[in-house]
Amino acid sequence: MAFISSGYNPDKPMENRITDIGPRKYDNFFPPVIKNNFGKWLYHEILEPGVLVHVSETGDEVYTVRVGGCRLMSVSHIREICEIADKHCDGYLRFTTRNNIEFMVDSKDKVEPLKQDLLSRKQPGGCYKFPIGGTGAGITNIVHTQGWVHCHTPAIDASGPVKTTMDVLFDEFTNMRLPAKVRISLACCLNMCGAVHCSDIAILGYHRKPPLMDHEILDKVCEIPLAIASCPTAAIKPSKVEVKGEKVPSVLVNEVRCMFCGNCYTMCPAMPLTDHEGDCVVLMAGGKVSNRISMPKFSKVVVAYLPNNPPLWPETTGAIKKMVEVYAADANKYERLGEWAERIGWEKFFEKCGFEFTHHLIDDFRDPAYFTWRQSTQFKFTE
Ligand code: SF4
Ligand code: SF4
């Protein structure tokens, strides 16, 4: 009798079995000069904005040209990046955690042709496809979340506000003239899958209205216990609701308890909470993960509401530009934005940036804020 072999041999169950189907180990992708000098690097320098050199104890050098990338890339854009890597870098390139692209070459004379090639590539509108910069005491690429392109709970878009913010801050990407580095991040809802809460400046999308309920279909498209269990504040309870003269199983939301997280909508598409007027931008400031000068800090809410105003989000970009300008003019060298605000006092931060202060801001998880507000007799009210 003929049969088709499955290739499975019960006597050798592990033979030809693929057990590791994740990405290949990172060092398979090292350029030869990195592989040869692994663990032997002596120091690195930033030669100019966007250009670094790493020097090994063997005498080898690696020159890196860093360019701004984008979080969501088209296939044609990635093909162009690969073409540049093939032409100048023997096919190697790397992405930084902030989606910058780094092209590495192993000798100094290869740097200038690479730079010229990168700067010659422009979008049809005339802007750079591969702007060089993002190093040192400046602003590097903004990390962001999925936004309208891919997620179901965003209160604002992600790529759009990031692009418009980088447009107004472009000079700080190509220069290193700020007191210290400034990290900006965006998350398009408060679940923050992009973890923006430790950035110098964070842009956060925020819903301000509780979910709507489509009682007619809720029981048909959702598991009601799942929707109830999804709520972190226990604001949802089961209920019978009258629809067209008939009692149907559904849920009710205790609106006072709702913190507008959208978790219920994740579980139940009959509970949407996106709303043109309710959705807004919140700005946070002063976070960092570095432990230089002071301990890592969370960002604090400094602007509680700005309209979600596509396509250019002028209120948001204007407020961020103002914050960066005031910080650049006022901070001491090496001071991060949060350290500067703490040194001058948060009340002065609000005054200098022209933001309205209310007691809901800064440490709003505790009222009054124990740690950030200066509450001693030395406190002096400003104007
Ligand atoms: Fe979705 Fe929220 Fe992440 Fe934005 S931040 S992509 S809305 S989970
Ligand atoms: Fe609960 Fe969040 Fe839904 Fe509000 S939006 S009802 S807090 S799960």
Structural class: alpha+beta
Order of helices and strands: HEEEHEEHEHHEEHHEEHEEHHH
Major sheet = 5 strands, antiparallel
Number of strands: 12
Bound molecules: iron/sulfur cluster
Describe the structure concisely for a colleague:
The chain is an alpha+beta fold and 383 residues long.
Features:
single chain; 383 residues; alpha+beta; five-stranded antiparallel β-sheet; five-stranded mixed β-sheet; 12 strands; binds iron/sulfur cluster
Q: How would you describe this structure to a colleague?
A:
There is one protein chain. The chain has 11 helices and 12 strands. By secondary structure, the protein is α+β, with helices and mostly antiparallel strands. The strands form 3 sheets. Strands 1-2-3-5-4 form a 5-stranded antiparallel sheet, covered by helices on one side. α4 crosses α9. It starts with 31 loop residues before the first helix and ends in a 30-residue tail after the last helix. The site of one iron/sulfur cluster has 12 residues, from loops. Residues 210-211, 230-231, 233, 235-236, 253, 258-264, 273 line the site of one iron/sulfur cluster.
